[in-house]
Write a structure and sequence with these properties.
- The chain has about 325 residues and is of the alpha+beta class.
- It is built from nine helices and eleven strands.
- An eleven-stranded antiparallel beta sheet has the order 6-5-4-3-2-1-11-10-9-8-7, with helices on one face.
- The termini are far apart.
- The relative contact order is 0.15.
């Protein structure tokens, strides 16, 4: 029986492709089961809660742990934190207190939650994820359904439960821990660590790669932005104390207290300044059932903000008749003759 040379050539090429180790590896990746989310994989990593003092990378791994991983590790829980800021520059003093509350239901990284951030200036934000839907509102507004979430809910959850991670960054990763011994929090076995400020040039641990230089407009920064950037660039951690209590079973931070001072040197035009910050945070109701409900009376999702259209209504510019909720900016023809 004769075979077509073309078919024979194609068969040999197919056999060669199958025998290529690179192609085989590619096929294994393509047809392999979908890998779990990175957070789920991270949550399965075993962390030794007694080695945070001797392993600075492990210490920052625990201190900087995100909210989704905490939920994967420890299950449903309630998180609360209060952060007090006091800025002093010359004779001027500004104070601000921020409160953060997070209720995390069962379900891990994709579970329901209710996050709330408020401060002493009557500003705030609330985000609820319930039954796969996301709702958000400002402190005095109404909840609105957000069908195009674009990751806002996850970012808010992580920010709400992230003050310890933020302060670790504020103090340039110089949070050093010392093991004090076993303790317990709400009946859970834990280990207590005290906090001190690590030496700038000595035992300061590395915290990832150096970020690229920021780009600015040709005209440079405005005055307020320049002041903030100056604080970031020139800040000098001076004092840091407190404690961190870590769960013995999961290495999750159950309780933390920080008291620290950051200074910025002055010059001929700017007075020296300092920031005093105090943090108190804790987890409670670990493992207890938490039900997150869809907010009652929430507003539907909106394709376009009503504020602009409402303002145009006041000036007599009529909306188009279409369903897109736009406005007709062309004046009607005057036929009064």
């Amino acid at each position: 029986m004769l075979h077509s040379p073309r078919l024979l050539t194609a068969g040999l090429a197919l056999l060669a492709a199958c025998s290529n180790p690179v192609d085989r590896a590619a096929k294994e990746r393509i047809f392999s089961p979908e890998a779990p989310p990175a957070v789920v994989a991270s949550a399965k990593e075993s962390l030794d809660p007694q080695k945070l003092a001797s392993d600075s990378k492990l210490a920052h791994r625990v201190v900087d742990m995100g909210s989704a991983e905490v939920t994967e590790r420890i299950g449903p829980h309630r998180f609360s934190a209060e952060v007090a800021f006091t800025w002093t520059a010359g004779k001027d003093t500004v104070k601000l207190t921020e409160t953060r509350l997070l209720e995390s239901a069962a379900g891990g990284v994709s579970g329901d939650f209710h996050a709330r951030i408020e401060n002493s200036r009557d500003q705030g934000l609330e985000v609820v994820r319930a039954r796969g839907q996301v709702f958000a509102r400002s402190k005095f507004g109404k909840y609105r359904l957000r069908l195009r979430d674009r990751g806002m809910a996850e970012r808010t959850r992580d920010e709400t439960a992230g003050p310890l991670r933020e302060l670790d960054g504020l103090f340039q990763g110089r949070m050093a821990l010392a093991l004090e011994g076993p303790t317990s929090v709400e009946g859970r076995s834990a280990f207590r660590y005290t906090i001190r400020l690590a030496d700038a040039a000595g035992d300061k641990p590395a915290r990832g790669e150096t970020p690229p230089a920021a780009g600015y407009a040709r005209a440079g920064l405005d005055e307020d932005s320049a002041r903030r950037q100056r604080f970031i660039d020139q800040r000098q951690p001076k004092k840091l104390s407190g404690e961190v209590v870590v769960d013995a079973a999961t290495a999750v931070v159950l309780r933390a207290h920080l008291d620290g001072l950051v200074a910025v040197p002055g010059d001929k035009s700017v007075a020296p300044a300092q920031l005093h910050v105090v943090l108190d945070q804790r987890l409670k109701d670990v493992g207890k059932a938490i039900a997150i409900q869809v907010p009652e009376g929430h507003l539907p999702d909106a394709d376009k903000p009503e504020g602009i259209a409402d303002a145009l209504d006041r000036f007599g510019i009529q909306r188009k008749a279409g369903a897109d909720g736009g406005v007709d900016t062309e004046a009607d023809e005057d036929t009064s003759g």
